[in-house]
Every structure is written in structure tokens, then in C-alpha cells.
Amino acid sequence: MVEQQGPDATGQQKRRQLVRAVIASAVGTSIEWYDFFLYGFAASTIFAELFFPTSDPTTGLLLALGTYFGGFAARPIGAAIFGHYGDRIGRKATLIITLLSMGIATALVGLVPTYEQIGIWGGILLTLLRLLQGISVGGEWGGSVLLATEWGKSRGGKRGFLGSWPQFGVPVGLVLGYLALQVFQPIDPYWGWRIPFLLSIVMAAVGLYIRLGILETPVFAKLVAENKVERVPVRQVLAKNWREIVLSALLRTGQQAPFYIFTVFILTYATKTLGFEAGDVYTYVIVAGLVSLVTVPFWGYISDLVGRRRLYIVGAALMVVWSFIYWPLLDTRVPSLVFLAIVLAAPIHDIQYGPQATFIAESFTGRLRYSGASLGYQLASLTAGGPAPLIAVWLYATYQSSFAIAVYMAICSVISIVAAFALKDRSQQDYAVEYDEVKPTTG
Fold this sequence. Notes:
Elements: H1 11-45, H2 47-51, H3 57-88, H4 91-109, H5 115-118, H6 121-149, H7 159-184, H8 194-198, H9 200-211, H10 218-225, H11 233-240, H12 242-273, H13 278-306, H14 308-331, H15 335-361, H16 369-385, H17 387-399, H18 403-422
Helix pairs in contact: 1-3, 1-4, 1-6, 1-7, 1-9, 1-12, 3-4, 3-6, 3-16, 3-17, 4-6, 4-9, 6-7, 6-16, 7-13, 7-15, 12-13, 12-14, 12-15, 12-16, 12-17, 12-18, 13-14, 13-15, 14-15, 14-18
């Protein structure tokens, strides 16, 4: 039975639930992304030596990042699994499951023995836990976005701003993940890096407490009341909206690939190639994450004023240009310019990231929205986010030049521009009415 407020709920009650839903979305995604990023940072700086020791440092790094990629490969699986249940049993119940599974998987990473203790089994266990992390994240994002946006106004309103708060969880998780490693890693050579992973179980408990206090979204409650819940939503959305799923994945290419280069590959590049101290690079990326705490919701808000598609195209076009500025700034090896490059990457990236969640979610009708948005969003993990650090490592090793990485980022951004032009902008369409029951008012 779906827990809901009903049509007679007062405006004050609805506003209170909206605030709770936004907080629950932001806090929940912050915890999920803390877990996910923490693994990525450790894979870039720690895991190669502890779990994949080889005579060739590049090979060890690629093996460590390979387990990192495994989490991305699992995300579409999580999108399909939890998308199905999110459209069948509701947004709230599904989000509780994703939060718990992520917290448990991350805490267990902190207990995995090293290569010296159990040989290759340490790497195998890491990979399996990373897959569970990926499945959890694959289901988390879609539900968090719908929890926030489906409590807002069904037409117009501030959906772009509301949908930016689950995205806000990404820089929060980024900052917390970096800070945790920076604070705890020096404490003890064996337990230091493990403590941030073990703390995940405490954070998951806090997130669970918050999520238990919210109600189901009005959009899903309406679907239940009208008996419009799909029996097999994933199959239906693949049949009816395959085009929107593909375009959503392509839309993310120019945002996601650069993002994981800016936040994961940069750790290796700045320390191993440019010769910077790891602590300095951590600080630079933390500052960039703090900037995103402001610019992600800001650009979400701006998308409500100018339209999702228009703003997204501007952001992707700027990323093309920035790709050829970012690397020359880094390659100067001048600390102030390296700092500038890392920090400025955040607000430029966020022009796409702020409105992205709502742009994608609006592309799917309510009864298929969790499945469709999740699949479209997470498929990009296979083609963009997951491979990006690996491709960057390979490009630099092959061409001994960052220019090749710049070209790669620019191509990804052009793909996003084309996809944004092809995807309908439904900023002003009624979010609570099934799209196939009415003629769209905007193209």
C-alpha cells in the first residue's frame, strides 16, 4: 500500500513534504556518492600497490581502475532492477534498499585483506563489492531525482532547481570522500585508509532515518489510485522510449567523461606526471567540490528561467573550448595555474550537470519515469564515465601528450550538443499527466 497525503492535504503540508523530500534526496545521494567516490580515489592512489602489485606501475594502475570501471558497468543493471521496482512499488521503498546496500558494500571494502594476506582474492573481493556499489548507485539516482521533482509543481514551477539537489549530493560526496582519505590515511598504514570506508555504515544509518520520515510522491500515488502502474515497466520503456534512453545516455557523454577526468584521473596525472604532492591535489579538488555546492543548484535554477535544453547546449559548447584550456594550464606546472584549472572546471562542468537530472527525468512519462530516466542516465556509465580515466591513462601513455585527452573530451562534448538538440525540452509540460494521454505543448 502506498503511503500518501491525499488530495485534501493543505498547501503547508505539501510544502513541508517537499522540503523533506529535497533534504532526503540530497542527503541520500551525498552518502551514496561519498561511498562511490571514496573507492575511486583509493583506486587511483592506494589500491594498485595494495591489491594489484606488478613490476609495471601503469599495469597496476590500470588493474585498480579496472575494478573502478566495474562499478560503472554494474550501474545499468542497478538501473534496470531498481527502476522496475521504483515504478512498481514506489520511489521511497526502493531508495531505502539502495541506501542500505551501498552502505554495507562500502563498509565491507574497508575489511578486505590485501594482496600480501590473501593474494589475488583481495582484488576479487574488491571487484565484487564494487559491482554491488555500482548496482546500488544505478538505482539510487533515479529515485532521488523523482523524490525531489515529483513533490514540486506538476507544471512549471522550479523543477530544474529541485532536480539539482540530488546532483548537489555529488560534490558533497566528492568533498567528504577526499577529506576522509586525507584525514585518516596518514593515521595508520593498515587501518588509516579503511576507516572512511567503515564509517559508511554510520552515514547510511543517518540517511535511512531521514528517508523513513518521508511520504510517497504525489505522482506515484496518483498512478496507484488510477490503477496505471505498469506490470513490467522496464520492458515497456524500452519498447516505447528507446530513443529517449539512447539520447539521455549520449546527452551525458560530454559531462560525465570530463567529470571523471577532472576528479579521478587528475589524481594520477598531477602527482605522477606533474610531480605535485598528493595532499595539494586533494586540496585543489576539495575547493572545486565546494564551488560546485553553489554552482550545481544555481544552474538548475537558471534552467527554469531559460529552458533545460538551451542551457545544456551552452554548457556543452563551453566544455569543448575548456578542453583546450584546461590541459595547457595544468602542464605549466605552476601551482596557482594548476589550482585555477582544477577549480574552474567545476562551474563549467556544472552548467550541464545542474539541469541534467530534470532534463532527463522530464523525458519520460510518470509510470515509466524511474525505469527510463535511470536506464538513460546509467548507460552513459558504460560509454563515458567508467572508461574515461582508463582512456585518459591509455591516451597519455600512447601519445605522451595531454592534447590527445583534450581532443577526447571535446569529442564527447560535441556528442552531448547533438543529443541535446535531439531531445525534447519538456520544461513546461505537466509532469503529473501521462505524456501519451495528451499532445505535448512544446517541441
